[in-house]
Design a protein that fits this description.
2 copies of one chain form a homodimer.
Chain A lengths: L6 H5 L15 E3 L10 H8 L15 H11 L6 E4 L1 H13 L5 E5 L5 H8 L3 E5 L18 E5 L11 H9 L6 E4 L20 E6 L12 E5 L1 H11 L9 H12 L1 H24 L3 E2 L6 E5 L5 H10 L2 E3 L10 E5 L3 H18 L1
Parallel strand pairs in A: 1-11, 3-4, 3-5, 5-6, 6-7
Antiparallel strand pairs in A: 2-8, 7-8, 9-10, 10-12
């Protein structure tokens, strides 16, 4: 604590990202990265860039990347905002669309950055409990006349809402912003981008960190009504004119261009998820039905924190949250088939030693 | 304007960066980039990176880059904060150290992002007029007991304050934060980093966009007392855990490692600035004494906006600000010798046609 900190700085509770230990080589199943490298097109484009041009500022409009997003989603330029990862886009959205004291509604179990933004921007949170089966109670988000943020599929549960449910929430809160955070959408849920022409209160946020294998390059974006996008641009241009560097713009654009690679790696992850789910269940785990690139699992006999620690010792990182209602769960990112086989082998070895 | 914008979003006046036209090749003397490519070490390191790892999140601590900054400035890790360009670091500083309604003092003619941050974070600006010769009235910043931000050297004037003057301001405002924005420090002024062990209210901010030829990679940093740095980290970690991507971290670290290249390119710019100043003066321009990688010049006979437009037509971009007191000035970045010769040739051709 410092006498120079602002009140906000004193009171915020910063987000803690998944650990990234540098002591040895781990099988990393803790931060939902893609196990597959970026598209060969990304690699090729970076390798043929004129690096002398790094002396020059990037294009503040990220035109080349914007054009690919526009093409992919069949939207227009004024409906797209690009930022430094979806976290930055989320933060800018909170700043752009909420006043201090406004209420924002989100589930009790969801992406743990939402409460951080809520505190940072002095909003008033209303936390809606997930059902006992960890599904979202859709009706609790309808006709609320308050800001709403929902992760679809939800994290860390992996459970998706149907597009109909999303539309119902958006439609019945037409006077307030509804933000749908689609970080994991490509792994099995239906995007709400197709609704942005119908509802001016809907903002859809996505990232290239998961399904497009670019966590290391920090690229995220939002799609919504052009007035919302203009609001985001006003905030961004009051903070930092250039949030994406030259290489991130190139990498992002190329990742979008390679639709085949994207589809192939996503379907590999989906099939590895099916394998992993079956194997975990045969070990006695309860595994929630996931539409994301991770599974959320609990074992009725073994303590999740113990499993987490034993796996870590064995060189496998998974994510454990010491939080109410989910403190006996593990969130396990879907790696390659080989990595998941290794996980199952280690679990077979570890579990009997735990009790 | 949208019914969904927050009050802040409605009221802010976003920063407008220098134009980056894509229609043709210009001699770019308008955004103070280095005319020299990044160090060969930067190019080499990027070319030998394992690009498959771009699938993984970057190191949130930016350890490799931090270590180089620490080594270069002989400070410790807890005294350094790294961000996405100095603009982001400035924005986070405003959030970390000021409450809404707080007063912040800066000169009337300075980096035009300061009023933007002031508005964004609902601060109350106190604007101190530069003297008629565009120097900072140091006494007007002493014993003020309010937040202060000063660019040293100042932009767009290029005029530097002595370290003694900076120390006087920091020392006499010991209960409030003094931010020294040293974006251009390497081109002829003395850094206040050497004062950070003495004053816990001093925050020094620098960028790799100018003297280290990395505008395209978005790297900036702050050095100050560890409590201030902790405050910045709290804000950053409440917005975006990873503001620098993998390539920016590598590029920044390598740029710092190559001290020889840094010193060589900086001294080339200084000598080209001397040449440019002489030539402009011989054309009748009044040129302020610059300690930065640009000069600020006015011509008693010709209108600055006309010169700006004619130069643009001739394929040379310089910066023109239509602002009170400086609306007959041009800010001209220092390019290579060849580029500045071209500028002088064009001015010789253009000026007689203007009147």
């Amino acid at each position: 604590m410092s006498r120079f900190w602002s009140e906000v700085t004193k009171n915020i509770k910063p987000y803690v990202p998944g650990e990234q230990p540098r002591d040895k080589k781990y099988i990393k199943l803790n931060t939902n990265e893609s196990p597959y490298p970026p598209s060969p097109r990304v690699i090729e484009a970076i390798n043929t860039m004129n690096l002398d041009e790094l002396r020059l500022y990037p294009d503040p409009e990220c035109t080349d990347l914007m054009n690919e997003i526009i093409r992919f989603y069949d939207v227009n330029k004024k409906q797209v905002f690009v930022g430094n990862g979806s976290d930055e886009v989320l933060a800018f959205s909170f700043k752009a669309f909420f006043n201090a004291g406004d209420t924002i509604i989100y589930p009790d179990i969801t992406y743990s950055f939402y409460p951080v933004y809520t505190k940072l921007f002095s909003l008033s949170p209303e936390v809606v409990k997930l059902e006992d089966d960890f599904t979202v109670n859709v009706n609790a988000f309808c006709s609320r006349d308050n800001g709403i943020i929902i992760s679809n599929p939800n994290a860390p549960t992996g459970i998706a809402l149907s597009l109909e449910s999303i539309e119902k929430i958006v439609k019945t809160n037409s006077n307030k912003i509804v933000i749908i955070d689609e970080a994991y959408i490509d792994f099995g849920a239906e995007t709400a981008v197709k609704l942005v022409d119908l509802y001016d209160n809907l903002l859809v946020i996505q990232t290239l960190s998961k399904s497009r294998s670019l966590a290391g390059m920090r690229v995220g974006f939002a799609i919504g009504h052009e007035d919302l996008i203009e609001g985001l641009n006003r905030v961004k241009n009051s903070i930092n004119s250039y949030t994406l560097d030259r290489m991130a713009i190139v990498a992002g654009a190329e990742a979008f261009k390679d639709k085949d690679y994207f589809e192939t790696t996503v379907s590999k992850t989906i099939s590895t998820r099916a394998y992993t789910t079956v194997e975990l269940r045969s070990l006695g785990f309860e595994v929630l039905e996931s539409s994301a690139n991770f599974v959320f699992a609990t074992h009725p006999k073994f303590n999740a924190e113990d499993i987490y620690k034993s796996l870590r010792e064995a060189g496998i990182l998974v994510r454990y949250f010491k939080l109410d209602r989910i403190d006996n769960f593990l969130r396990i990112s879907i790696g390659t088939d080989e990595e998941m086989k290794q996980l199952i082998i280690e679990l077979n070895r570890i579990l009997p030693k735990i009790d």
